[in-house]
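$ run holo --ligand "adenosine-5'-triphosphate" --emit tokens
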Amino acid sequence: MDVNWNLLIQQLIIGLANGSLIALIALGYTMVYGIVELINFAHGEVFMMGAFFAATVVGLTGVTPQSAPLIIIGAAALALVSAMLFSAGINFGIDRIAYRRLRRAPRLAPLIAAIGFSFILMNIAIYWKGGNPISPPALLPQKYRAYNVLNEWFGLDTTIRLRPLDLLVFAITIPILFALTWFVYRTRSGKAMRATAQDRDAAALMGIDVNRTIGMAFLIGGALAGAAGMIALYYTSAARFQMGFRYGLFAFTAAVLGGIGNLYGAVVGSLLIGIVWSLSDGFMKTLIGGWGAQWTPSVIFGVLVLVMVFKPSGLFGDHVPEKV
Amino acid sequence: MAMLEITDLHTYYGNIHALKGISLTVEQGEIVTLIGSNGAGKSTTLRTISGLNQARNGELLFNGLSLRGIPAHKIATMGIAQSPEGRRVFPRMSVLENLEMGAFVRGTVDQSDIARVLELFPRLKERIDQKAGTMSGGEQQMLAIGRALMARPNLLLLDEPSMGLSPILVEQIFDIVTEINKQGTTVLLVEQNALMALAIANRGYVIQTGEIVLADTGAALLKNEAVRKAYLGEG
Ligand SMILES: Nc1ncnc2c1ncn2[C@@H]1O[C@H](COP(=O)(O)OP(=O)(O)OP(=O)(O)O)[C@@H](O)[C@H]1O
Ligand SMILES: [Mg+2]
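-- output --
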């Protein structure tokens, strides 16, 4: 079989970019699950709200593609940070208002509350921006939209396209991932978070304020989702009240695939799903006549089912017993 | 003034009345043991002192300050540390990280504290980078006690440190508890191994279905007819 190398590399680039975007969302699922064993079904909508808020903030700055480059960069950074704060606030607020009261309730209670908040946020979004897709206010000058970094900067004679937007996705996600790892494994608060996730009573005996620590996990998870919202807004040049469902589902799948509760697992699972997603989009048609990109979700969940059958705890699932 | 003074303390789990008016005191420098059979309320007593459970009635004074209503994480900063029932080490953290968590209330980890714990428990030194969850029960028990010591507590609460350990290890653990006490830490020791506990304790209390039924010196309780019958398997 002839392999179309250019298409393969092209799809890998797209897959890695989509995967890093999913990773930002998946980390929020996995952190919250790790610490309170709750699947936060509202998390996809927290991400969507971040995208909406980013669009609003960019609109408010009045920046256009014709503005000075530094102003454009400043507006984008402002929108990114605002979206992170906004989503963090929402996620923290939901925990404070609902989940925290249900800490000792049966598992199903916070889960139903999460589904409820997912609908509430979607309805707020519809009320706020309407039911149709919104486009982000233009930021990038026209020249850079179709710009191919590989041709222009590296002088490569290739049809593979690497856009500034692709690079931007990596430029934002990679530092965030490193910062998160540093926070969780190196700082006092991060260690408190891991301890709380592993044994809540024991953590309290060490002097850790468990409620505050759980709140912090929601804050951080929300901030990552907000960053993902801003990125998705520009990467896909659209946002809609339903966008949290598809991304949320893929991110949740990625978290389970990697071993829910495990941070590295969430990142690896996300990259894997991003790549499977883009390869399926790109090659399904040539592999199986009559099939196309519409099969991608089935392929992704097929991979999930396969991994679950052979490794039920996920790729990086923990085998160290929780309690002795 | 006693270091710990508990008067007519009542604790519930929902409708279950687990502590029905417990009174006991621990003086500075003592080893006091609380013995009793399964479900008597020993762990509940320690959990109530630490703030993991809240009492519904009664008085709970530590150095004259009431602990009632104070959350566990604040009580931990007041000089009380607990090695809880079932060890409860952090399974996915290394031995060293577990010890560092023990010093959380102190803000910074003092290397001399780690050195002291490793001297008391040389076994932990060999396992310093091992994940705590993969260690044997006895090793985890040593870690749980060592972790509690890292807070440099004035009062150390130990919940069944001998549970599930081989006789030789039990003897070692009790020697170490005595040593810790000699170094200046007051100890409240919950045990089912009444013989060993009473042998090292200054004083002891016997708890039965949520009530204190006997209180005396360790030596006197060891000779007590009822205690020998009920807890030392005699008669
Ligand atoms: N989480 C809980 N929910 C309901 N009841 C509880 C709970 N924990 C303990 N109890 C009850 O409270 C009583 C005292 O239990 P506790 O754990 O204090 O006993 P114990 O003396 O430590 O026993 P053991 O020697 O078996 O550890 C028991 O009747 C027990 O069933
Ligand atoms: Mg007990």
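-- notes --
The first helix of chain B runs from residue 42 to 50.
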